[in-house]
Design goal:
five-stranded parallel beta sheet; 5 strands; binds 1,3,4-trihydroxy-5-OXO-cyclohexanecarboxylic acid
């Protein structure tokens, strides 16, 4: 099973940005953590981070016919991007939303998740473990696409 793991803007600043919210571990630590969990579960992952909405849209589109599912933390674009929502709907792959923090307990503008509307599973406020849970969910729930 091949999965696309997408991370949005400022997640590359983990370990530097708002440590009281996001912790002291870096983006590299997050990638290593995801790779380790994926290896344990026997999953192939392509991890991609961008600060640019269009690049995230392009990457979602490129998953069509190539990937078996998408795990996405759209970061700030969660709350603004209809383009990311539409891209997820367009490729129609199993999708899971991850947020390190519990956005339901934060500012009112974080209460809406556009991308989340196209996701079948949500792992919110679990820190790095949210990605691990999303990988487990994918293994259990996403069907492997037939060979191209
Ligand atoms: C975030 C939550 C978003 O509201 C915020 O803009 C982020 C990170 C999270 O993982 O908790 O950048 O997606």
């Amino acid at each position: 099973m091949k999965l696309l793991i997408l991370n949005g803007p400022n997640l590359n600043m983990l370990g530097i940005r708002e440590k009281h919210l996001y912790g002291a571990q870096t983006y590299e630590d997050l990638q290593l953590n995801i790779l380790k969990r994926a290896r344990e579960l026997g999953l192939d992952v392509d991890i991609f981070q961008s600060n640019h909405e269009g690049e995230l849209v392009d990457k979602i589109q490129s998953a069509y016919g190539e990937m078996d599912g998408i795990i996405i933390n759209p970061a700030a674009y969660t709350h603004t991007s209809v383009a990311i929502l539409d891209a997820l709907k367009a490729v129609n792959l199993p999708a899971a939303e991850v947020h390190l923090t519990d956005i339901s307990q934060r500012e009112p503008f974080r209460q809406i998740s556009y991308a989340g509307m196209a996701c079948q599973a949500h792992f919110i406020g679990l820190g790095f473990e949210g990605y691990g849970k999303a990988l487990e969910w994918m293994k259990e729930n996403a069907a492997v696409s037939p060979a191209q």
